[in-house]
Design goal:
about 425 residues; about 20% strand; 21 strands; seven-stranded mixed sheet; nine-stranded mixed sheet; alpha/beta
Amino acid sequence: MVETELPGQGVVFWPVGTGDSTTIVVGDNLVMQVDLRDMKAADEDDAVVAAVIDRLEETLPRPDGTTPYLAVFALTHADSDHCCGFGDLLESSILIGEIWATPRLWRELSEDKPMCEDAQRFQDEVERRVDATLKAIKDGKEPPSGDRVRIIGYDEDRKLHSYAELPDEYFTFPGDVITKIDGQDVEDRFEAFVHAPFKDHCAGDRNDTSLALQVQLKASDGTVGRLLFLGDLAYPIIKMIFENSEAAGNSDRVEWDVLLSPHHCSKKAMYADGEDGEEELKQDLLDLLQAHASPDARVIASSLPFREKDEKGNNPPHLLARDAYASITDYEVLCTGEYPSKEEPRPVVFALEPGLGLELVDVADLENKARRMWEAAGGGRRLLAALGASRYPATAFAAGAGLPHPRGTDAARAGVQQARGDKAEPAVQIGFGAA
């Protein structure tokens, strides 16, 4: 599995099979991880899934010069395909400044519902942070980085659980905007608008309590890139998110440039039972998604490669969902399991370019930039596999990914490159500087 650098500001969707692992680079040494799937299969020689924790250890910023620093880890919900490897993350050299958690796990524990080992490790860590925060407050102090926690969402059983003792500033609810990461005010470059989980669904299925966010990344010139994360939500709640946002005058909070397709490109996002009990396409949701998409909007399927056809009972990804998304955007859905090829998938990386927005970064661009950094530093730092660029030249890359000819911001980006020449440094910083 080839390595990759992180963009100076942007997002990385790691190939992890059918599961989620998304890294958001806010900038200025601040990186956020939304969900994690790091499997033992990633250690095999012929792996087609990423060893996410290893990649983070190698590429995260090190503000103190030694410790890889992850400012925030946010868990959408506690299914194993969203938290696999969290115990290994805790045991790694990475410092997690702050954790964002929903109340769902406390309810599951109180109801004695089974959960995977990594979900239990996550809950234990959140409980530790709640205790550490309460102790710090009692001592008249702020909890330090590494002990911070944020509870997102409301549960009717809140008074029964330990987190209920936290002061109000440690809670965030649907309709709230987060502009602080691990104690730092980042409003000038980051906002996370919370859409869900809703109070009314606190006792529902685990997927229905998924954390849903619109993340805005802001470049220094004011350019904004919008990411939409909907966890494993299905049609009824996704529709509610859009309708509630429009009714509240927050329609800008469901605008998107990049959408991580809900539940790994599951058809349940836009198919549901009709009046006759038969499954039908819900065009109303597709219309809402299309109405709030930017002209160059892209959809990501974090999943295994698509099958040749859908059959009843198949888990996602679903061709029906892929085709539905393709009908509302001008680009094909990018599947992490087959990008740019099924045999050797690579991370899907978008960089926030001033004046342009979130731009899909060619693998060769990342590799060439990383190589120049490595040479300038005199070597000694693991960056990208040296054979990557020769194995996937830019022309082969575009063809393998099934991408259309440049248009919109892609065409603008090509114009910028033509104007400045091929040897000029790109506008977007890749990585965090010299080793």
